Amino acid sequence: MLYTYKYRNLLLIILFMATLFKSSLFAQHVYIPDTIVVQNLPEKGLVFEYTVKKGNTMYSISKAFNADLIDLYAFNERANTRPLSIGAKIIIPFDNQLLDAKDAKNHIVLYKVGKKENLFRIAKMYFGVDVKTVKILNNLKDNTIQPGQFLKIGTVNFQKEEIVEASIPEKKSNKDTAQKANNNQDKIKKDEPKKKIIVKDSVDRKGEEKEKVKFEKIIVVKKDSAVIKTDSVAAKKKKVILMSDNGIALWNKRSRTKGVFVLNNNAKINSLMEIYNPMLGRKIFAKVIGRIPPNSYPSNVKVILSPQAATSLGAINTKFYVEIKYDKK
């Protein structure tokens, strides 16, 4: 009788845990609709919308639609500082390389025609398909289309491609990295242009010169239509506690983000992070727009970069060593 009671309790515990596990999986599930409506938005390109469901995260959405995570944060600024809410609309970049005009088993792709757009531009320039194919799919007798019209372009399989690999090579010590950088220093100096020392005059309201500040370079960060300028001296003048760290930086060459952005787990959101590539002696400032998903990348991955941030640091490989300084959150 006692054994029966124990086994019954054990069975109830197992069933309870299984229910929780199933609920957790369901909460993370991203529903991909049968039809995707794509539009061409200024400064974003081809995109479509997804309605957030219970338990969805930016990472789970990026995985489901094979989108770059930093693109999602860059295209959805509200997600940088606020948690996702059920029913919210997320803008997702559309990768036309996943398009398959023949496979009818995948999700249907419709394009909403905008103003002053023609069939040739939509077919060839936007999606890379033949005009004849689009005409056949939509039973068009000629090339006449109207703004607001929905055109069937083909189908898409979001699981065709893989997102940037996160496997990290054997970690090297800071001493080894610094030694390698010193060995290549002469070679780097020949290839790199010499840095110019710029003198910036600070003038008060009366027009009198207050002081002269010297700094090595200005880093320009684009934010919408505005331009933010920062320099190494300005960063020092702020009364903030700067934290230092080092490790691996990752970036996706196929990302469509325009701007100098990064994802990091410790820096204050919307603050500027200083990133240094010791191999080339390059330093930039990048805006922190989001967090790296937990348990999705190795612990030594410190930042995920936008393409512009990575190329400004001279990156060629999708992962490389960096040193960072940031304002603690």
Form type = elongated
Low-confidence stretches: 16-27, 161-175, 180-237
Distance between the termini: 57 Å
- CATH structural fold name of the largest domain: Barwin-like endoglucanases
Q: Supply the number of structural domains.
A: 2
Calculate the mean pLDDT score and round it. 75
**Spatial strand sequence of the major β-sheet:** 3-2-1-5-6-4
Give helix % range: 25-40%
Radius of gyration: 25 Å
Query: So, the CATH homologous superfamily of the largest domain?
Result: RlpA-like domain
Q: Name the CATH architecture of the largest domain.
A: Beta Barrel
SSE run: HEEHHEEEHHEHHEEEEHEEEEEHE
Number of helices: 9
CATH first level of the largest domain: which class? Mainly Beta
Largest sheet: 6 strands, mixed
Please state the structural category.
Answer: alpha+beta
Query: Percent of residues in beta strands?
Result: 25-35%
Topology:
Blueprint: H1 2-28, E1 35-41, E2 45-51, H2 58-64, H3 69-75, E3 89-93, E4 99-100, E5 107-112, H4 119-127, H5 131-137, E6 150-156, H6 174-183, H7 185-191, E7 198-203, E8 209-215, E9 218-223, E10 226-231, H8 232-237, E11 242-251, E12 261-263, E13 272-277, E14 282-290, E15 301-305, H9 307-312, E16 319-327
Parallel strand pairs: 1-5, 11-15, 12-14
Antiparallel strand pairs: 1-2, 2-3, 4-6, 5-6, 7-8, 9-10, 11-16, 12-15, 13-14, 13-16
Task: Describe what you observe in this structure.
The protein is built from nine helices and 16 strands. The chain is α+β, with helices and mostly antiparallel strands. It folds into two domains: about 35-155, LysM domain (Membrane-bound Lytic Murein Transglycosylase D, Chain A); about 175-190 and about 220-325, Barwin-like endoglucanases (Beta Barrel), CATH 2.40.40. The strands form four sheets. The protein has a six-stranded mixed sheet. Strand 9 (about 220-225) and strand 10 form a beta hairpin.
